[in-house]
Design goal:
Helix content of chain B: 25-40%
Helix content of chain A: 40-55%
Distance between the termini of chain B: 41 Å
CATH superfamily of one domain in chain B: Sulfite Reductase Hemoprotein, domain 1
CATH class of one domain in chain A: Alpha Beta
Shape of chain A: globular
Largest sheet of chain A: 5 strands, parallel
Structural class of chain B: alpha+beta
Distance between the termini of chain A: 38 Å
Number of helices of chain B: 17
Mean pLDDT of chain B: 96
Strand order of the largest sheet of chain A: 5-4-3-6-7
CATH architecture of one domain in chain B: 2-Layer Sandwich
Largest interface: A-B, 16 and 10 residues
Radius of gyration of chain A: 20 Å
Number of helices of chain A: 10
Oligomer: heterodimer
CATH class of one domain in chain B: Alpha Beta
CATH superfamily of one domain in chain A: Nucleotide-binding domain of ferredoxin-NADP reductase (FNR) module
Low-confidence stretches of chain A: none
CATH topology of one domain in chain B: Sulfite Reductase Hemoprotein, domain 1
Number of strands of chain B: 20
Structural class of chain A: alpha/beta
Strand content of chain A: 15-25%
CATH topology of one domain in chain A: Rossmann fold
Chain lengths: 227, 565
């Protein structure tokens, strides 16, 4: 019986995507930022089960089953405190939501975005929106790393490193630090770089630097959404 | 003095130029802005004076917008090359830069310049520095200044070619902007300039009201279309020696659809000057245009309108006044052909030159024709050759004593000999889509196909060998000099062209609008019966452009003011 057969199969696990919009700006809509997984296996082009479905199969006005998993901490500071947003690839999603929110609510707090992707020409996600936020003053600073645009690969942690003096000052001045994106590689490299920066700029041992970052975490000023 | 300028009356660009601090603008800041592949809006005007146009790929404009990406910006870089002559090393360097930083092709322009297309912002500086390494530059290749000076291309065609070519260089040097901005911005060089000196002794802070074009022709050939130039010089050869030059003023191609105050115009011959007077005459004419040219309406700013507004007699009086002497009466001259004459020719110096056809001026490799590779091989192996860009987007491999070697290389790649119809040989197309922001329709990407279809008709009437000048542009601004063609096609919208007939082969008569807004099929259907008539009733040696007037398909355009779109 087909029904019995189907019951034998393991259900597809849900896929979690960060929301990249603010209700203040888009009302009843919810935007997500999906990168289509695509690879070749044994000569066949395969696409990700969910990202492929969303990107290729789904049509406008189709319905999909969704649920919300809340990340209570990964929010804008309530009072317009400075924010440092670090993300690569689709890790840009929540920051788009942040700036939508700030624009919709008219908050021009200090803000700094570090974003990394492969190529400037094709992968600068939401490029025209960042340009608009910069122009209108909702985004204060931006640092970009496009890894494939030059011979030696440059990633978001290299941009952090280059800006370390200012970055550490922002952190000391009470900025909120956000990190979003790939867990295995990007998050590890960024955190390592952050510790180096704290150690060097703060004249701390690596132990002290760890404590410093840990303290930020405890104060909910270092927030991550990694996957 | 600046306080007296009423900016509200002037074209917006006048203020941008004035405020640019001698062509610096905010170019340095623009180049460093990582958030955009574009430069600041005002800088897109200033960059032109540095030979750089900002463009974007119009083919993918909509798709990028959907992706929340800005347009795919890139830059056209035009390399100034007075008289169009490049050495093998210069050719090789341009060839390399095209592959490394541009779209892998070289465009040879209708003004004997090189163009690189598709250079993105972060490669701009490196590319300009690469051009500089080859002792070339891009200063004043565009902008409201004197543009690339053209001169008769083929050294094998005239004993005075070398002298005329030298003059092109001298004119260019005399009228090049003197601001150190170019060296500062692109080459990281600080030039020491005394603050007491006038930075731009000829141009001043606001440069010219509009572009200015100079060309020198050597009769009986008019390959540079001397009457299309703001300022033309017609070399007068007497007994094998250069006697001097007839001076023509007020030519210009550009016009605007729906604006009858704009029109193409042919230059007027106003007199003759000795070789030693040319630089002074040119500078005075540039200064008259600087002082009297229209700075309010850029569409009416070329020298041709300054002359028509004030009168030719006024212009001559003004010139004589500034010179302190009168030009001599114009000498006799006769043009027999514009365009290029293909094939090998031995020059008076015993050296050989080969005029090649380059379709649409685009040097590239295709599956059937590895033109770029072939020319690169010639440049690498034939050290005494010169590479001369003609005013018709073609290339002359010139002044070599290694004719056999050149012939062998080109034959190996199937470049020469080439079998071409008389129509194709005489074709010019501007760049148009997908990069030119002005284009309403295709030109370079489309004309080869259209010619193929017209050839089918010509074959039917045994007219394949008949030389007919055909030129297509994507807009009425006239980069491809379409108003001088026997068959002119100017884009109105995607897939639609105005058809103009009745130019001549000497480049001395404007054509006239024959039919409006034609599709491809309509173009073919319109031309077919005329070709049938031509095959049957053409007089001996009668050209197509003369024929259509004699048979009253169209009446000749006597003056630019009478030209209608």
């Amino acid at each position: 019986m087909p029904g019995e057969f189907i019951e034998l199969l393991r259900p597809l696990p849900p896929r979690l995507y960060s929301i990249s919009s603010s209700q203040e700006a888009v009302g009843e809509e919810v935007h997500i930022t999906v990168s289509k997984v695509q690879y070749t296996n044994k000569g066949r082009v395969r696409v990700g089960a969910c990202s492929g479905y969303l990107a290729e199969t789904l049509e406008a006005d189709d319905e999909v089953l969704v649920y919300i998993e809340k990340n209570k901490n990964f929010r804008l500071p309530p009072n317009g405190d400075p924010i440092i947003m670090i993300g690569a690839g689709t890790g840009i999603a929540p920051y788009r939501a942040f700036l939508q929110h700030r624009e919709a609510t008219g908050h021009k707090g200090k803000s700094w975005l570090f974003f990394g992707e492969r190529r400037f020409s094709s992968d600068f996600l939401y490029q025209v929106e960042w340009q608009k936020y910069l122009k209108k003053g909702f985004l204060g600073k931006i640092d970009l790393a496009f890894s494939r645009d030059q011979e030696t690969k440059s990633y978001v942690q290299h941009r952090l490193s280059r800006q370390q003096e200012k970055l550490f000052k922002w952190m000391n001045d009470g900025a909120y630090l956000y990190l979003c994106g790939d867990k295995k590689k990007m998050a590890v490299d960024v955190e390592k770089t952050l510790l180096e920066i704290i150690s060097k700029q703060g004249g701390m041992t690596s132990e002290k630097a760890k404590e410093y970052l840990h303290r930020l975490k405890k104060e909910k000023r270092y927030l991550t959404e990694v996957y | 003095m600046n306080n007296q300028i009423d900016w509200s009356k002037l074209s917006k660009l006048e203020k941008i130029k004035h405020d640019s601090n001698y062509l610096r603008g905010t170019l340095t800041e623009s180049l460093e802005d990582p958030v955009t592949g574009a430069i600041a809006e005002d800088d897109t005007q200033i960059s032109k004076f540095h030979g750089i146009y900002q463009q974007h790929d119009r083919d993918i404009e909509k798709e990028r917008k959907r992706q929340k990406l800005e347009p795919a910006f890139s830059f056209l870089i035009r390399v100034r090359l007075p008289g169009g002559i490049a050495t093998p090393d210069q050719w090789l360097q341009m060839d390399k830069l095209a592959d490394k930083y541009a779209n892998g092709t070289l465009k040879l322009t209708t003004r004997q310049a090189f163009q690189l297309h598709g250079v993105i912002k972060r490669n701009l500086k490196t590319t300009i520095q690469g051009i500089n390494e080859a002792l070339l530059d891009t200063i004043a290749a565009c902008g409201d200044v004197n543009r690339n000076v053209m001169s008769h291309a083929n050294p094998a065609e005239s004993v005075i070619h070398e002298q005329v070519y030298q003059l092109a260089g001298e004119l260019s040097a005399r009228l090049t902007p003197q601001t150190p901005a170019y060296h500062e911005i692109w080459l990281n060089k600080q030039l020491v300039v005394s603050t007491k000196e006038e930075i731009e002794p000829v141009y001043g802070r606001r440069y010219l009201p509009r572009k200015f074009k100079i060309g020198i022709a050597i009769p009986p050939y008019n390959d540079i279309d001397v009457f299309s130039q703001d300022l033309g010089f017609i070399a007068i050869e007497e007994n094998g020696r250069l006697a001097g030059y007839n001076v023509t003023v007020g030519g210009g191609m550009g016009s605007t659809f729906g604006n009858p105050d704009t029109y193409p115009r042919l230059g007027d011959v106003i007199g003759f000057c000795r070789p030693g007077q040319v630089l002074e005459v040119a500078e005075k004419i540039v200064l008259i245009q600087k002082d009297y040219g229209n700075r309010q309406d850029r569409k009416r700013a070329r020298l041709k309108y300054t002359i028509d507004t004030n009168g030719l007699e006024w212009f001559k009086y003004e010139l004589n006044n500034r010179l302190g002497y009168e030009l001599s009466p114009a000498r006799k001259f006769k043009f027999i052909r514009n365009g290029d004459r293909y094939g090998w020719k031995q020059g008076p110096n015993g050296k050989w030159s080969l005029n090649l056809f380059v379709e649409g001026g685009r040097v590239k490799d295709t599956e059937t024709l590895p033109l770029k590779t072939a020319i690169r091989e010639v440049a690498g192996k034939v050290d005494d050759a010169r590479f001369i860009l003609t005013g018709n987007q073609n290339l002359i491999i010139a002044n070599t004593q290694q004719k056999e070697k050149v012939a062998r290389i080109l034959k190996k790649h199937g470049v020469w000999p080439a079998s071409l119809s008389g129509l194709r040989k005489n074709s010019i197309a501007c760049v148009a889509l997908n990069t030119c922001g002005l284009a309403f329709a295709e030109a370079e990407r489309y004309l080869p196909d259209l010619i193929g279809k017209i050839e089918t008709i010509l074959k039917e009437y045994d007219l394949l060998k008949e030389e007919i000048v055909i030129r297509m542009t994507g807009c009425p601004n006239g980069c491809g000099r379409p108003y001088l063609a026997e068959i002119g096609l100017i884009g109105k919208s995607i897939g639609h062209y105005n058809l103009y007939l009745g130019g001549n082969k000497q480049g001395t008569r404007l054509n006239a609008l024959y039919r409006e807004t034609l599709t491809e099929q309509e173009i073919l259907d319109t031309l077919k019966p005329i070709f049938a008539d031509f095959a049957l009733n053409k007089a001996k040696n009668e050209s197509f452009g003369d024929f259509v007037i004699r048979r009253q398909y169209i009446s000749a355009t006597e003056h630019g003011r009478d030209f209608r779109h």
